[in-house]
Write a structure and sequence with these properties.
Blueprint: E1 17-20, H1 24-35, E2 40-43, H2 48-56, E3 60-61, H3 65-71, E4 74-77, H4 82-90, H5 95-98, E5 104-107, H6 113-124, E6 129-132, E7 135-136, H7 139-144, E8 147-152, H8 155-165, E9 169-176, H9 180-208, H10 213-221, H11 228-237, H12 249-266, H13 271-285, H14 296-303, H15 308-316
Parallel strand pairs: 1-2, 1-4, 2-3, 4-5, 5-6, 8-9
Antiparallel strand pairs: 7-8
Length: 317
Amino acid sequence: MQTSFWGGRDMSDKPVIGFIGVGFMGHGMAKNIVQKGYTLYIKGNRNRQPVESLKGMGAVEVTSAKEMAENCDIIHICLSNSPQVEAMFRAEDGILAGARPGLIVIETSTADPTSTMKLARELAEKGGTLVDAPLGRTPKEAEAGTLDAMVGADDETFAKVEPVIRCWAANITRTGPTGSGHKMKLLMNFMAMGYAALYAEATVLGAKVGIAPQTVRQVIGTSRLGNGFFDTFMKYTVDRDKNAHLFTITNAAKDVRYANNMASEAGVVGIMAGAIKQYYTHAEAIGRGGDYVPMLGDIIAELNGMDMAEEVQKGRG
């Protein structure tokens, strides 16, 4: 039998996959992996529904990241922030405790690149390799297997993981070596959260001067300024669809902080990044971190003594 990096199995065999973090995004990603015929181990959190859903498809649940590392060839991580990822690696029963030569960890969270590189070095000491492959798009695309992926990896490792990533991503961009994926993702989310702050402030200003949110959506959405993110944002603002974009302000605030930190470390003046950060910091400070990003418009309206839902209703009148 030909020896391979898949724990000694023949290269024709599929690698055994692990998945940590089967929440909004992770459930769909993991579902597509198991449905493509891969053996899948999962580690969930308090929410049992996605775990039981995946177990019903044939996934095997483990109780620790160490156990997963001992049984898997490739582990995905899809968590909220770098401290959570670091804990999953460094805990007594974490990935590093069970890592063996040849293990690959695909880190799909939106993370701090400095943390990513430290973890990559620690995993390399165990003979493993870290790939950063943060995500673009929403849980809807995760379920459909059509996410975007920004992948940081060396040539050899990228060739090994690309078939697995194709289970859940339709648009894969190789960004460079390990760490580059998370840097690109911070740039993307910096722009996205900046758009959200801009859309919110502009819509509130419009309402204040007599331009209904519906009119803003109609004019901008049908112009060269229209885009998918704008459509999603206005689906909540105007249609009041709370599920229009299931991405919390807490996660957005974290991403904007990481972008600001990256700018500081690079010695780059970040005037826009600093300004954008203030809206998200305020939203968290008043206890609205659990709201979704399009709801930022409601918060900015309140700052200006307005109720966005009432403004929408006036526009319908």
